[in-house]
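One chain given next:
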Amino acid sequence: MHMRIFKGAVLSSLTAAVLTLPLLGGPAWGAEDGKAIYERANCVGCHKWHGGGGGGYGGAALSLRDTHMDRDQLIEVVRCGRPGTRMPFHDKNAWSTVQCYGVDARAGSAEAAPQAAEFLTASEIATVADYVMGNLKGKGKPDRADCVAFWGEGAKQCLTYK
């Protein structure tokens, strides 16, 4: 069995591999996976491809580029939605068996956010939060490079960017 040092402790390869998985478990996914989940979960419907938010079918979505939320807060918002807004929850157990925002699930669904059209696994939620943290948050106004990174070189959506 291979052993390695992890934060001052000697761990087996298997234990070290488990400890290095993304928060909430699951496979280590990359930015392309996060982007694909961002599209599949229809985050683009409100937050737009660039994460700048604005008007969408659900109202005025917040800018993910300007957000002050950290990774854990983003995970909770994706998992639980935002009560009182159109931000849906993506964890099928949110507001039923999973505690959201410190509210006991048994307290009732009166405080619940709307249900998403598609549920995500815990690792998919963590992956989309990582995508937002690494590719959208704090990036300023979207430019041509952002557009090409999202849509690909030669995409008609990027023609307006110089």
